[in-house]
Design brief:
Order of helices and strands of chain B: HHHHHHHHHHEHHEHHEE
Strand content of chain A: 5-15%
Oligomer: heterodimer
Number of domains of chain A: 3
CATH class of the largest domain in chain A: Mainly Alpha
Number of strands of chain A: 7
Strand order of the largest sheet of chain A: 2-4-5-7-6
Radius of gyration of chain A: 76 Å
CATH topology of one domain in chain B: Cytochrome Bc1 Complex, Chain D, domain 2
Structural class of chain A: alpha+beta
Largest sheet of chain B: 2 strands, antiparallel
Helix content of chain A: over 70%
CATH architecture of the largest domain in chain A: Up-down Bundle
Chain lengths: 561, 351
């Protein structure tokens, strides 16, 4: 039972293990989501694009190719939006790359903040510069026109020339990357300031304003260009490229790892396929083996069945033979019984007449016969009487077998008392005492026959007694639904080897001459007890005595016939 | 039975394995897809950009949830957003009669508290790159928090405001339809108001002009625009908002604050946010749309009229002096920036 429950548990664990293993492999083999990666890369691209466009617009702004800041603002907004999206995308990145990308993003954020600050400054300075650049030529032209409107004079001409020179130099200075014109312009401005004294008030303020704007341009241009250089040099581009590289590295790393898992999975699947094929083959084989085994089994069973029926047949025959045989035995027994009876019966009559005639001879011719003849006649009579007894006993044996018991309640105590009278003389002669238990029961049995049994046993005891003080005791006890009687003597005892023999016909212990009797008595006793469905046996110790036991099953009186 | 189970397990594992192999064994190489170029700008915008105008027409009205707009409008006009239920956003940003401002030098807040700066218009505020004179709020959403909890403006606390609004069944249902289940949060309120503010755009004749309708402006207005560009106003007042896209020092070419005197903390402008000395006296360049309707001018409300404001600009920002004629022309141009809202031209009631 234990074994049975343990096995499915193991199988279950095995299956669970396989399932877990496969699912882990499966989940790991996903790799990084390619779509996710592409999205990330797209955002990086957008970031880069915004940054590039921002730089372009900054340059354009500087050279007046773009004249408003809105585009810068929107690029900046896009940059921050892309950055924020990338930050939120970070959750899809794991492991080492995460920290790297995290710090990269932080750096980019910082860089953009710096860039924004620079742009702020740039926007202000550039506006001022542009303002002055727009305003300076207007003012200069106004002054030039004013000069031209004045009556021609040498100082006017000089002013005109200086103003034109200033205008062209400042405008070139603005477009020139180097600041080499700066000293010249400063000198020109000084010269113009010197001229101012001669001018009327309105021209003076105009000149003052013009100079102010020129100075603003000198100053702001330098700052703006510096800022622009700074802005262009900012490593946002490289950092963005770095970010892209980080993402790509992460993706390749994951892809490689996933590749291993996929390989593992592939291997595992191959194993599984192999195992399955193997199992299927085994199953088929097993199926076939089973079929074969089944076939043999069937054949064997059939064979066995055949054999068995044969044996059965034999047995039946044997039984029949046996029955036949026992019937024959019975028949022959009966025949034998019949024969014995007939013979005994037929023998009795001649024996009686033989004895009678011998008596007549002895009585009627006593005087005429001598002593020797008398002796012979005596011998004839003794032998014929013995023979008569023998025949009677034989007859009795057959009678016991043939005649059914005549059952009646028999008081055994009374029965034994009667027997005591019968054996009185013999007992006195051999100094035998008969001791009878006080509480002998009343038993349903054949009175004549049971009397015979007990008489026979007592007479045997008397007959073989050899002690000066002989005791024969008769008793009874109840045993398992039967009465168990015993007849005990303290005679010579019987050797164990004769325990069974003595119940056979014509078996006598001791020499024939020593004890009279036919040797049929115990045979009759046994037959009677068996007829009563009882049992007879004996216990004996040589020199100490013998106890005969016999049982008579308790029966109710049969319903009166 | 157990044998069948065992085989079933094997088959399952097999199926899973094969599925994996089938599904994942051949990953496509990471596509090095080129990011799409930014969406092409509309034809008119492109045209304008080609002409390289420093000023840009208003973009198309953004796509806004009309339910949120109307909810935002209600909130904007609801005095329950203030501590004692007396002041709404509209108290200082009157959309109907004051072109989104309050017409005062310094605005009057809760219990008559005098504000520290002049209230700008809320019209087109969605186009500003940052909010407030000093740009301390990056977005409109962020900005809304300011006045509600400002002790000089509405002086309220969000939990109180939410409790008050929560008692209004209409609000509760309106918030539910716009923001789904759940109780009202400050974020919902600021979002609704911000959405409403984004709807406050005012297209004008000037936009039509920029978009190619040369008859949209009178000759004098066009002349004013030319002067506006020529004198370099566009260096600072530029783009869609005609301002609102950068910070600039007030008093570039001359000492505005020295001349005015009585310098306050608010005069520090951007410095108050960044604490960077270079940012002292810097302000967000205000957008000039509807400017003719929103006197007085500047963060300190020190210029009562446009003439004054323009002369101040000329002197302190441009280092120039304009003739009255020039100023008049510029004013005419600036008036062409007055826009329409809800199909009606914005007004300033003259009281």
């Amino acid at each position: 039972m234990n074994q049975r429950t343990a096995f499915p548990l193991k199988t279950g664990l095995l299956i669970a293990g396989i399932v877990v293993f496969v699912s882990v492999m499966f989940s790991q083999s996903h790799g990084a989501d390619l779509k996710r990666h592409n999205e990330r890369m797209e955002k990086v691209q957008q970031l880069k694009q915004s940054d590039v466009l921002l730089n372009q617009d900054l340059l354009k702004l500087r050279f007046g190719l773009v004249s408003n800041f809105d585009s810068i603002r929107s690029h900046m907004q896009n940059l921050y939006a892309s950055l924020a999206k990338l930050r939120s995308e970070q959750s899809s990145v794991t492991g080492e790359s995460l920290t790297q990308i995290d710090s990269r993003l932080a750096r980019l954020d910082q860089l953009f903040k710096e860039k924004e600050a620079s742009i702020e400054e740039f926007s202000e300075n550039n506006a001022t510069l542009n303002n002055s650049l727009r305003y300076f030529p207007t003012l200069t032209m106004r002054l030039v026109n004013w000069v031209k409107s004045q009556p021609a004079s040498e100082s006017g001409q000089r002013l005109d020339l200086s103003l034109n020179e200033l205008l062209s130099k400042v405008l070139v200075y603005n477009l020139n990357a180097s600041g080499e014109l700066k000293p010249e312009i400063e000198r020109l401005l000084e010269k113009l300031a010197g001229n101012a004294a001669e001018l009327p008030q309105s021209a003076k303020t105009d000149l003052q304003l013009t100079a102010n704007h020129a100075k603003t341009i000198l100053q702001e241009k330098e700052r703006v260009d510096e800022l622009l250089k700074q802005l262009m040099a900012m490593e946002t581009g490289t950092e963005i490229d770095g970010l892209g590289a980080d993402f790509r590295a992460f993706q390749t790393g994951i892809e490689r790892q996933a590749g291993y898992y996929r390989f593992g999975l592939f291997g595992m699947s191959l194993m599984l396929v192999g195992a399955t094929v193997f199992i299927l083959l085994r199953l088929r084989e097993a199926g076939r083996a089973l079929e074969a085994a089944n076939a043999t089994l069937e054949k064997r069973v059939a064979e066995r069945t055949d054999e068995l029926s044969l044996v059965n047949e034999q047995l039946k025959q044997d039984q029949a033979t046996l029955l036949e045989y026992s019937k024959r035995v019975e028949d022959s027994n009966k025949e034998l019984d019949d024969f014995t009876y007939t013979v005994s019966h037929d023998l009795k009559e001649p024996l009686r007449s033989l004895d009678a005639f011998a008596k007549f001879l002895f009585d009627d011719y006593a005087e005429k016969l001598d002593e020797e003849a008398k002796n012979y006649i005596e011998r004839i009579r003794a032998n014929s009487q013995y023979m008569k007894k023998l025949v009677e006993d034989l007859l009795e044996v057959s009678r016991v077998t043939k005649r059914p018991n005549e059952l009646e309640p028999v008081a055994i105590a009374k029965l034994v008392d009667d027997l005591r009278l019968r054996f009185e003389a013999a007992m006195q002669q051999k100094h035998v005492q008969l001791m009878v238990d006080a509480d002998l029961p009343t038993v349903v049995c054949d009175r004549v026959r049971i009397t015979e049994v007990i008489a026979n046993l007592i007479s045997n005891g008397i007959k073989y007694s050899d002690k000066p003080e002989c005791i024969i005791s008769v008793g009874c006890e109840e045993a398992e639904g039967a009465w168990k009687f015993h007849v005990r003597d303290n005679g010579p005892g019987i050797d164990k080897q004769y325990f069974d023999k003595i119940f056979e016909m014509f078996q006598r212990l001791g020499k024939k001459e020593e004890h009279e009797g036919t040797g049929i008595g115990l045979t009759i006793v046994k037959k009677i007890i068996e007829k009563h469905k009882g049992r007879i046996w004996l216990e004996s110790t040589l020199g100490q005595g013998t106890t005969f036991y016999f049982t008579i099953p308790k029966v109710d009186m049969p319903a009166s016939p | 039975m157990k044998k069948q189970l065992f085989y079933a397990g094997w088959l399952l594992a097999l199926a899973a394995g094969s599925f994996c192999v089938w599904r994942f064994s051949a990953p496509s190489a990471p596509a090095q897809k080129q990011a799409a170029l930014p969406a092409a700008t509309s034809a008119s915008e492109t045209m304008v950009a080609l002409l390289n105008e420093p000023l840009l027409p208003l973009p198309a009205m953004p796509d806004l949830d009309p339910r949120k707009v109307s909810l935002g409008r209600r909130l904007f006009h609801d005095p329950r957003l203030s501590k004692n239920n007396t002041i709404s956003c509209a108290s200082c940003h009157n959309i109907q009669t004051m072109a989104g401002a309050d017409g005062r030098k310094l605005s009057l807040g809760i219990e008559g508290a005098l504000g520290k700066v002049n209230a700008p218009t809320v019209f087109n505020s969605g186009l500003n790159f940052k909010q407030f004179w000093d740009g301390r709020a990056a977005t409109l959403e962020e900005q809304v928090h300011g006045p509600v909890t400002n002790s000089l403006e509405m002086g309220a606390q969000w939990p109180d405001v939410i409790a008050k609004l929560g008692q209004d069944a209409d609000y509760v249902t309106e918030f539910k339809t716009s923001y789904g289940e759940g109780s009202i949060t400050p974020d919902m309120i600021t979002d609704a108001i911000a959405v409403f503010e984004r709807s406050l755009v005012t297209p004008s004749r000037f936009d039509r002009y920029l978009l190619g309708d040369k008859t949209a402006l009178t000759q004098r207005e066009q002349e004013g625009y030319r002067l506006f560009k020529e004198h370099g106003c566009v260096a600072c007042h530029q783009g869609v908002s005609i301002g609102g896209n950068m910070f600039q020092t007030m008093g570039k070419m001359a000492d505005y604050f020295g001349d005015r005197g009585n310098i306050t903390e608010s005069d520090m402008g951007r410095f108050n946010v960044t604490k960077d000395d270079r940012d002292k006296y810097k302000f967000k360049v205000p957008g000039l749309r509807n400017v003719a309707l929103t006197p007085p001018y500047f963060h300190d409300g020190n210029a009562a009229t446009l003439e004054e404001a323009i002369q101040t600009m000329a002197k302190y920002q441009l280092g120039a002096a304009f003739t009255d004629e020039e100023v008049g022309l510029i004013i005419e141009f600036l008036k062409s920036l007055n826009g329409e809202y809800d199909g009606k031209p914005l007004e300033k009631s003259s009281e």
